[in-house]
């Protein structure tokens, strides 16, 4: 029941009111029906919307991509223990083999090819820092592959805000996301 859902919507009482709503980085279709009406109404009523990062900005996307890379032309093979690297390579080979079977007819109907999808997700994986490879591997599941092409909730809301001509922005910069993850030492990763 919509009325019984906890909205996780905070209201800052001022004129006009301000709202704080926590999102989750999953395809919006997985959670949209569970977002209470009061949260959707707050979004509709707002003239400005600020997100964690501006996922509609090409500079944000390229900044995220570059911060994931190992420095000085290093390769993952240079920094991972040999056996772990071999297991990772075997797993990614398995994913590449399974990808065509995991894709939906709708994805294929939109002209999405398994090789393209694999390269979009895992391309250049041998040049990425271990923490980003770990996050990438965690997203290479059948369920996640089947929802590729559906924007995550943050991106969906940003796209909707732009479509509705709302002012948009971000509260964090790419560096504020990247540096903490890149600062983890190998044993933490």
From TrEMBL:
Picking any one GO molecular function of the record gives: metal ion binding
Write out the GO biological process terms.
Answer: negative regulation of Wnt signaling pathway; proteolysis; Wnt signaling pathway
Q: Name one GO cellular component term.
A: plasma membrane
Q: Which Pfam families match?
A: TraB_PrgY_gumN
Which cofactors are named for this entry? Co(2+); Mn(2+)
- UniProt keyword annotation of Glycoprotein present: yes
The record's InterPro entries line, in alphabetical order, gives: TIKI1/2-like, TraB/PrgY/GumN_fam
Q: Does the keyword Membrane apply?
A: yes
Q: Which domain of life is it from?
A: Eukaryota
E.C. no:
3.4.-.-
Which terms are listed as keywords in the entry? Answer: Cell membrane, Glycoprotein, Hydrolase, Membrane, Metal-binding, Metalloprotease, Protease, Signal, Transmembrane, Transmembrane helix, Wnt signaling pathway
Q: Where in the cell is it found?
A: Cell membrane; Membrane
Q: Give the record's family classification.
A: Belongs to the TIKI family.
Function per UniProt: Metalloprotease that acts as a negative regulator of the Wnt signaling pathway by mediating the cleavage of the N-terminal residues of a subset of Wnt proteins. Following cleavage, Wnt proteins become oxidized and form large disulfide-bond oligomers, leading to their inactivation.
Q: What is this protein called?
A: Metalloprotease TIKI
């Amino acid at each position: 029941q919509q009325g019984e859902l906890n909205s996780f919507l905070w209201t800052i009482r001022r004129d006009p009111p301000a709202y704080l709503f926590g999102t989750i980085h999953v395809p919006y279709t997985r959670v949209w029906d569970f977002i209470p009406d009061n949260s959707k109404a707050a979004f509709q009523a707002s003239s400005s919307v600020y997100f964690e990062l501006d996922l509609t900005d090409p500079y944000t996307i390229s900044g995220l991509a570059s911060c994931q890379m190992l420095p000085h032309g290093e390769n993952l093979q240079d920094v991972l223990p040999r056996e772990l690297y071999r297991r990772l390579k075997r797993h990614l080979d398995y994913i590449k083999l399974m990808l065509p079977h995991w894709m939906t007819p709708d994805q294929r109907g939109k002209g999405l090819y398994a090789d393209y999808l694999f390269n979009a997700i895992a391309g250049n994986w041998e040049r990425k820092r271990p923490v980003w490879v770990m996050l990438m591997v965690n997203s290479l599941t059948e369920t996640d592959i089947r929802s590729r092409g559906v924007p995550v909730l943050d991106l969906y809301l940003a796209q909707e805000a732009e479509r509705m001509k709302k002012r948009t922005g971000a509260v964090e910069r790419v560096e504020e996301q990247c540096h903490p993850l890149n600062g983890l030492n190998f044993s933490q990763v």
